[in-house]
Amino acid sequence: MRGTTDDVVRAALASGDPLPGTAGFAGELDGTLGRDVLGREPLFVEAGATGRAVPPWSHDRTDLAEPALFPAGTVRDSDGERTVWTLPDPEPFEDRATAVERVRDAVETSIDAVETEGLAVAFSGGVDSALLAARLDAPLYVAGFPGSHDVEAARSAADLLDRELRVVELTHDAIERAVPEIAAATGRTDAMSVQIALPLYLTAERVAADGFDRLTLGQGADELFGGYAKVEKAPEDPRVEADTVRGAQREVIATLPDQLPRDVLALRGTGVEPVTPLLHDRVVSVALRLSDGMLVDGETRKWALRRAALDSLPETIAMRDKKAAQYGSLAARELDRLARQAGYKRRMDDHVGQYVESLLD
């Protein structure tokens, strides 16, 4: 079992507790194969295997001939495959002050518990990564093309925190080299997956070259705390089905079991282990108790997290808006540019995806 102790998983199986105090787990225990409710630890099974209670499996998809992602919150044993853990739906906090205090305590406790030996911080200057930077004594790294939003935001935030920043300058040559490596590690070739993974992968490569083997990320904060425009605009936004902000929050949290393996496997492909304290069970438990107005207040997304962050960060960083990494680093724009230069024009269906496939060939 990877991610926690056998005893914790046994207790979670016996009680059905979906958030037993871990940062995720997956693997085999006592003849039972299982993966935590948010899928924070990847787990793959051999798709073609039949007639066995526990099929061939691995945390690394490249170990299997036909890897299939094992569903989050699910176990498989001699009784078959079934869901045993689902996210709770607790009542929201009654007042904002309590919510902010509980968020602050959960976030700070989770970050402060991170061991800093061999650790680096993926730092983009937004509230999520800045919380990590402010509370962990580890070097800060940002990836982006020259003049990109992420590089400039990270530089200004690092100055405010009085921290040194190491910039991983992205280039077209690096992108062309990294795309096949990302596809091999993650098994994904769609344009969006590759765009998201590129800055993470190239940051992790530099981190490994500098002698670090762990990289802490602010992953999960947008999903848990209402960081997306489609959550803010629920129910008007057609990208979500929910008719409330809180309902939209749960919709995007439900996407994590499919998203997280991409990021974990991309980093592990460089020899670097991801560390995601904002995805710890104690943070998830608190985030699920936030009401609509605690998630989004007017035009302020991640309201409760930002208010909680004011104890650790200057207000200019805590309240700063930030672009998604693939856009803030300009990785998405420049991958699109390379595709067009290679003859894959925007009028073509999925022109970037076709370009990615051409690099694999």
Number of domains: 2
Radius of gyration: 20 Å
Structural class: alpha/beta
* Largest beta-sheet details: 5 strands, parallel
CATH topology of the largest domain: Rossmann fold
First and last CA, distance: 36 Å
Strand order of the largest sheet: 10-9-8-11-12
Give the DSSP E fraction (strand runs of 2 or more residues).
5-15%
Q: State the fourth-level CATH superfamily of the largest domain.
A: HUPs
Helix content: 40-55%
What does it look like?
The structure is a single chain. The chain has helices at residues 6-15, 96-112, 127-135, 149-160, 172-186, 191-209, 221-225, 229-232, 245-253, 256-268, 281-287, 292-295, 303-309, 315-318, 325-328, 331-341, 351-360, and strands spanning 26-29, 32-35, 44-46, 57-58, 67-69, 74-77, 80-83, 119-122, 140-144, 165-169, 214-216, 273-275, 296-297, 300-301. With 361 residues, the chain is of the alpha/beta class. It folds into two domains: 6-83, no CATH class; 96-332, Rossmann fold. The strands form four sheets. The chain has a five-stranded parallel beta sheet, with helices on both faces. It has a four-stranded antiparallel beta sheet with strand order 1-2-6-7, covered by helices on one side. A three-stranded antiparallel beta sheet has the order 4-3-5, with no helix packed on it. Strand 8, helix 3 (127-135) and strand 9 (140-144) form a beta-alpha-beta unit. The longest helix has 19 residues, at 191-209. It is globular, with a radius of gyration of 20 Å.
What are the salient characteristics of this protein?
Rossmann fold; 14 strands; 17 helices
